[in-house]
Write a structure and sequence with these properties.
By secondary structure, this protein is α+β, with helices and mostly antiparallel strands. The chain has twelve helices and 13 strands. Strand 4 (142-152) and strand 5 (159-167) form a beta hairpin.
């Protein structure tokens, strides 16, 4: 009985049984009352009819009513055979004097015990009958109903009592049959109600039990609850079904949030581990070189200079790493607020290309402008960096955008061989201003392209570290583009170079 299903079914059955038994009892009580009321009216009519006939009879001198009472009853019985009202048939009619002594009976002499009736006593005391007097007569063998009427004859001035006794066996048999029918109907109704109550309880308690099970799963830490289990209830079903669907949706969202928090926690752990690793390498290098310098006995200016050069490079590398980490920290904590103003991207990109020319010449690399940014392979490459025929204005912070350009251009030169071609272009498409920067360097595999914007991810870790990279440049570039409402993506093939695209929303 601990289950809500059985509690609901039990309460439903108690309610149904109470209603059915109550209604059956009320119906049976009304049938009994109506049956005895009809019997009372019938006996009352019979007694009054006898009195009317006696009152109209002319009694001769010395003649008593009991002398013609039998003839009157016979006449009334014949009369009733031709009418709808059976006035005499099935009844015993007695004529009594005012003291209750028997004057006439078709059955002959009767004992006082047989004639004993509360109805006779009441009318002798002047009361009029309002209901039948039901009792057991004839030595307790039969249940009968008595009706008595006291009247006076004008002819003689004497008072008499008519007692009519009728067996109630027929009435009791009818009530018994009615009670049996009500009992069977009630029993059948209880069985049907029990079946319907069970299915109703299952239908109502089902979603509640499922919700209980799911809350227990949530409490135990199991967040993998399928939202699609009741997906068809979005527009169908009752309130409990909708509640279950919303609970599933909430559990699904909670599961996603927990998973996201777990991923963020793991990213944070990885980030700390990567930072520790990245800082440990230059610190170890600096420490070992300094200790070597301290332990050197002979003075070798060239060796000291070379060692100090290494220490300087590693210090610069640590400074770059710390600067990038601070930048990412500000981005993650939303401490960076853009001071947006109209920025002309074409001139900004051209200026950054010009600044890269001197560094590129050290490795015989060539910096070129792509005339058509979309179709680089067929683009007309122009010597020098001519002014653009149109302007490309976007809302943003110039210094942050320039940081992204410089990052991509530096990477392009860093990961391209001597004599390589570094190209850049700008164009409009689909309501965006797009910038493309490409090289014909080592390229990036399809597998690595999935993680290229992750923090501290390097395609070639040894080569990237030797070039002074921190592994954070592309992550910062991605964060900066998202901060401007833009996008960044890459297309690359191993051995054929890489193409990076930047998409900025146009100024509205």
């Amino acid at each position: 009985m601990g289950s809500i299903k059985w509690k609901m079914a039990s309460l439903y059955m108690i309610l149904v049984v109470t209603v059915l038994v109550g209604c059956g009892t009320l119906i049976l009580f009304n049938l009994r009352s109506n049956a005895y009321e009809d019997a009372f009216k019938e006996l009352e009519y019979t007694a009054e009819r006898i009195v009317d006939v006696l009152s109209t009879e002319n009694l001769t001198r010395g003649q008593e009513p009991q002398e013609i009472f039998g003839e009157i009853l016979t006449a009334l019985m014949l009369e009733s055979m031709n009418t709808d009202v059976m006035a005499i048939g099935g009844k015993a009619v007695y004529l009594l004097d005012e003291e209750g002594q028997l004057l006439y009976s078709r059955e002959g002499e009767l004992t006082d015990a047989v004639l004993a009736s509360r109805a006779v006593i009441d009318v002798r005391m002047g009361s009029s009958m309002q209901e039948l007097y039901i009792h057991t007569a004839y030595d307790g063998q039969e249940k009968v109903a008595d009706y008595a009427l006291r009247f006076e004859l004008a002819q003689s001035g004497k008072a008499y009592i008519i007692l009519i006794r009728q067996s109630v066996g027929t009435i009791q048999e009818s009530l018994k049959n009615a009670a049996y029918t009500i009992f069977i109907s009630t029993l059948l109704g209880i069985v049907i109600a029990g079946v319907l109550g069970y299915f109703l309880a299952v239908n109502i308690s089902g979603p509640i039990l499922r919700l209980t099970r799911k809350t227990q799963e949530l409490a135990s830490g199991n967040l993998q609850i399928a939202e699609t289990e009741n997906a068809d209830l979005k527009t169908e079903g009752d309130e409990l079904a909708h509640l279950e669907h919303h609970f599933d949706h909430m559990a699904h969202e909670l599961s996603g949030m927990i998973l996201e928090l777990q991923q963020m926690e793991q990213m944070q752990k990885d980030f700390v581990a990567n930072v520790s690793h990245e800082l440990r390498t230059p610190i170890t290098t600096v420490k070992s070189y300094v200790e070597t310098l301290l332990d050197m006995e002979a003075e070798d200016p060239q060796l000291v200079k070379r060692f100090l050069s290494v220490v300087s490079q590693e210090s610069d590398r640590m400074a770059m790493l710390i600067a990038d980490l601070l930048e990412l920290s500000k981005l993650d904590s939303h401490q960076i607020e853009l001071v947006k103003e109209p920025v002309e991207l074409g001139e900004l990109l051209r200026d950054n290309l010009q600044r890269c020319e001197w560094e590129a010449k050290k490795r015989s690399q060539c910096v070129r402008w792509i005339a058509d940014g979309e179709d680089g392979d067929k683009a007309e490459r122009m010597n020098g960096l001519p002014a653009l025929p149109e302007e490309f204005w976007v809302p943003g912070e110039k210094r942050k955008i320039e940081q992204v350009f410089r990052n991509l251009l530096t990477n392009a030169m860093k990961y391209s061989p001597d004599g390589a071609m570094i190209e850049a272009g700008i164009y409009e498409e689909q309501g965006e201003v797009r910038v493309v920067i490409r090289d014909n360097g080592v390229g990036i595999s399809a597998e690595d392209q999935k993680y290229i914007f992750d923090r501290f991810y390097r395609v070639d870790k040894a080569r990237s570290r030797s070039m002074g990279g921190t592994g954070l440049g592309l992550s910062i570039a991605k964060e900066m583009m998202e901060l401007h409402g833009g996008r960044i993506w890459v297309k690359s093939e191993l051995g054929r170079g890489s193409q990076f695209w930047l998409a900025f929303p146009k100024e509205g």
